[in-house]
Design a protein that fits this description.
This protein has 326 residues and is α/β, with parallel strands linked by helices. The protein folds into 2 domains: 147 residues, D-Maltodextrin-Binding Protein, domain 2, CATH 3.40.190; 129 residues, D-Maltodextrin-Binding Protein, domain 2 (3-Layer(aba) Sandwich), CATH 3.40.190. Helix content is 47%, strand content 17%. It has 11 helices and 11 strands. The protein has a 6-stranded mixed β-sheet with strand order 7-6-8-5-9-11, sandwiched between helices. The chain is globular. The N and C termini lie far apart (46 Å). Pyroglutamic acid binds next to helix 8.
């Protein structure tokens, strides 16, 4: 935790260098991100920062602070909103309780492959942009995680096998899913996964093969059950007033690099499942195809949750779903 730096920001000492920029001067943007360096999302952001530095000839430098080192994951959106930092990345579904529209991509079994995920993002994007715009934030781009699957110590062939398990979660939607399945949810950020398992706080999780392999899941669970339940996204947002302070050509360079990062990120994501599942297999994890009974039970939970989502998501939700279902 970079406390000293944080309190300087809070005191406004660094604001001049973080979000203020006068024409022609060099600007440095501090960018908090939640996930560790080896995560493909972080790698993609590091490339994005390099692209911006080179296309602006050093006029804008983006300094990436990964793994929640500058702001904790939960704080990143508001830190960007308030201008403590000009740019940040977070898991979009983290905002599930703020507005269900942000978390439609974390609904179990709505969009479970990349084609559907892309379709869902085009339906969701205008609403997400509208909601964040009201908060002074602009969406730069969004990149999906690979499909989310199940990690356990013992085989799971039906939903009731999950009953009572201490289950690692990362947002409100997953927490609801886990409760419906009769397990006991505990929120744990990615950098803390290994410790949460080794101290016995959790004993099972649902996440991508990326996060599974990067956190060395084989050290604490034996079985990966390939349920492919949803394809959730991270989003990179920028504070609008910080953006407006950039020179026009620098603004254009940021937007162009963002567009490239979105495209590259989706491609990186698509390569992850096979590569990371192979790593887990090599390290001794059993890769299991889910039973029909398990999938039927999990899908029933998904159907219930979708009905609840519709009730709470109002007109914005209807708009997203009707565009998605076209
Ligand atoms: N990894 C992140 C979010 C989704 C994923 O695949 C996590 O486990 O928190």
């Amino acid at each position: 935790m970079n406390m000293a730096f944080k309190s300087l920001i809070a005191a406004g000492v660094l604001i001049g260098t973080t979000i203020g920029a006068s024409a022609g001067s060099n600007t440095t943007w501090d960018m908090p991100t939640p996930y560790p360096d080896k995560t493909f999302h972080t790698q993609n952001i590091i490339q994005f920062a390099k692209d911006v530095a080179s296309s602006t000839k050093g006029e804008l430098t983006i300094k990436v602070h990964s793994a929640g080192s500058l702001f904790k994951h939960k704080e990143i959106k508001n830190a960007t909103r308030s201008g403590q930092v000009p740019i940040g990345e977070f898991y979009m579904g983290l905002l599930a309780n703020e507005n269900p529209a942000f978390a439609i991509d974390t609904q179990p079994f709505l969009a479970t492959n990349y084609d559907d995920a892309a379709k869902l993002w085009s339906a969701q994007r205008p609403i997400v942009e509208k909601l964040l715009d009201k908060q002074g934030l602009m969406v730069l781009y969004s990149v999906p995680w690979p499909g989310q699957s199940l990690y356990t110590k013992k085989p799971v062939s039906k939903v009731s096998d999950l009953a009572g398990l201490k289950f690692r979660t990362y947002n409100a939607t997953l927490e609801r899913f886990v409760k419906h399945a009769g397990a006991a949810p505990t929120q744990v950020e990615v950098p803390d996964i290994a410790q949460a398992f080794s101290t016995g706080r959790v004993e099972a999780m649902i996440t991508s093969p990326s996060t599974g392999a990067n956190s060395k899941a084989w050290d604490f669970v034996n079985i990966y059950t390939d349920i492919q339940a949803w394809v959730p996204k991270n989003v990179v947002v920028v504070n609008k007033s910080a953006f407006r302070k950039l020179d026009k050509p620098v603004q254009a360079a940021v937007l162009e690099a963002a567009k490239a990062a979105e495209k590259r990120g989706w491609q990186m994501s698509m390569k992850e499942t096979d590569a990371k599942v192979a790593i887990m297999k090599k390290n001794g994890m059993k890769i299991v195809k889910p039973s029909d009974e398990l999938m039927k039970g999990l899908r029933e939970i998904g159907t219930k949750m979708m009905a609840d989502w519709k009730k709470s998501a109002g007109a914005d939700g209807e708009m997203i779903l009707s565009t998605y279902n076209k």
